[in-house]
Write a structure and sequence with these properties.
- The protein contains 1 helix and 4 strands; from the N terminus they run E-E-E-E-H.
- It is 18% helix and 29% strand.
- It is α+β, with helices and mostly antiparallel strands.
- It has a two-stranded antiparallel sheet. It has a two-stranded antiparallel ribbon with strand order 3-4.
- The model has no long low-confidence stretch (mean pLDDT 80).
- Bound molecules: zinc ion.
- Zinc ion binds next to loops.
- The site of zinc ion has 6 residues, from loops.
Amino acid sequence: MADEQAIINCTGCGVPILTWWASGNHGLLRGDYVLIADTVWHPKCWEKQTEKYAWPELPTKS
Ligand SMILES: [Zn+2]
């Protein structure tokens, strides 16, 4: 089955990001972005966000 692509604006800076969505399989990501819940971020934007707010229950980077 083919993966689906979607262009979603980065929640941090608003710049569109091309994302890939593997059908029937979570956790397969290609490209330079991170998925946080239902939002899409550039890794750098997400880092900035975490530094800014230091939320207590963020997923830790592995
Ligand atoms: Zn961004």
